[in-house]
Every structure is written in structure tokens, then in C-alpha cells.
Design a protein that fits this description.
The structure is a homodimer.
Chain A: E1 5-12, H1 16-27, E2 33-37, E3 42-49, E4 52-59, H2 65-73, E5 76-83, H3 87-96, E6 107-108, E7 114-118, E8 128-132
Chain lengths: ~140, ~140
């Protein structure tokens, strides 16, 4: 199993309004998309850097998982997402290797991707996402 | 200023011996190098995934910054490193934009790179590294 490349890195922020100009300066890039993911109660902003996107994630409700993350750990690196082919198969494969899954089945994420999260208790504290773009 | 691509993502782990086989299974890749960085009192293991490396980092001494990170926050995502051209210039530029620097001058990191860290207090809680490969 080879995920191929890092699709994006998710960063939890309190305010996109503050974070976007900072990241535009630091990365020398323009934010190319802002999208709400209502399922996760977040608003996301994207930058593209080579193969990989930076996804800034702001909670839009106190019950959002991102609001809870920020409350517990502060702003910062939240997750890493690997592009895979055959997402359902990859999930079964990871599970058969003893990895706990947060999402046993793919669901819809930002940018039209099918996504699923692995549990950080199985991956040395790293919240990992597998994602697949279905054309 | 455009860093170009994400050179690597650093992940703090307690034990490379446990983490390497897990990441080899999960990523479907072989660890291609293990290196000690005595300056930081760490041992690092590298995987290559497209343009970006995954760097697992184990502290080899309780006074290592990575030991302190794990003690405070547990294992997990530690930093994100951007490949840049003209590292010293990029550092001055970031500083002039109001970013605090951990390293005002480049120093030697793993894999022969010149590296410098920015302070997470200036970057929404994300520990960022700029790095440059000098041939």
C-alpha cells in the first residue's frame, strides 16, 4: 500500500481572517479557495504548495471537533492527509494491520474528496486522513 | 517569497523501533535513512512520499527539545519544513514581516540541510522550519 503523496496538511486556527494574510505573506502564495464543511462545522482556506495543500481550518461552532482541538491543545498542526487510490480497500487494509479507524467508511470532505480518518491512538499520536479524488 | 514545496513533516515519537515498522506498513514505504542529530539530541528516520519526506524524531536524551515536546503534548505532529531558496534572505524577510525567529541564522540539520525555525507564537501555533539544500 502506497499513498502516493501528501494531499494536504490541516492546521487548526481560531480565525481565518487573521490566519489567511499571515500565511499568504509567509508562503508567498494566494489562498485559492474558502469552503465551509458543514458536517464538521468548519470553514477552510486552501493554499497549494507543490503537490501538497495547506488547509487552514476555523471552527464555526463551539461543538466542532476543531473547536475542541483548539480548546485542548491550542492552534496548530491538526492532521496530515495522504492521497490514496482505492480508499475503501486502504481502510480495510489499515484495519487488518491493527489500526483503529475513526471513519470505517469514506465520507465527503472539502474539495469534493472522499475522506476517512484513522485514529491517532494507532498512529503515534498523529491524526491521519486518507483521501481520494473520484472524477 | 515562495518556499516552493514542503520538504518534510516532523513527527515526534517515543521510539523509532516501534514507529518505523508502523509507518512502513501504513505508508507502504521503506525507511531510507536513520540519522542522529546530536545538536538536537535526537535520532531521525526518513521516508519519502512524493516531494515530501516524513521525518520521525526520537529524543535520545531527556534534555532534547523533542523529549520536552512529548512530555508536554504527547507524540504527534511536531513541525512542517518548507524548502526555500536563499535561506538567510527568507529569514530576514519573515522577521521584517513581524515573525519571531527561533534561529536568526541558519544552522545544520539532518540530511546536510541548512535549517532555521520560526517561532510558533508568530505562526498560529505551528512550528515552521525553512530549509535549503546547498550543493
Amino acid at each position: 500500500m502506497n499513498p502516493g503523496f501528501i494531499e494536504h496538511i490541516g492546521i487548526a486556527v481560531k480565525s481565518l481572517e487573521q490566519a489567511i494574510p499571515l500565511y499568504e505573506k509567509l508562503l508567498g502564495l494566494k489562498c485559492y479557495a474558502i469552503e465551509e464543511v458543514l458536517d464538521q462545522k468548519v470553514k477552510t482556506a486552501f493554499f497549494k504548495l507543490g503537490q501538497t495543500k495547506i488547509e487552514l481550518i476555523e471552527p464555526i461552532d463551539v461543538t466542532s471537533p476543531i473547536a475542541k482541538f483548539i480548546e485542548k491543545r491550542g492552534e496548530g498542526l491538526h492532521h496530515i492527509a495522504f492521497a490514496v487510490d482505492g480508499l475503501e480497500h486502504k481502510l480495510s487494509e489499515a484495519e487488518s494491520q491493527g489500526v483503529s479507524l475513526i471513519d470505517k467508511k469514506p465520507r465527503k470532505g472539502a474539495e469534493g474528496l472522499d475522506i476517512a480518518f484513522l485514529h491517532p491512538s494507532s498512529t503515534m499520536g498523529v491524526l491521519m486522513e486518507f483521501c481520494e479524488k473520484k472524477e
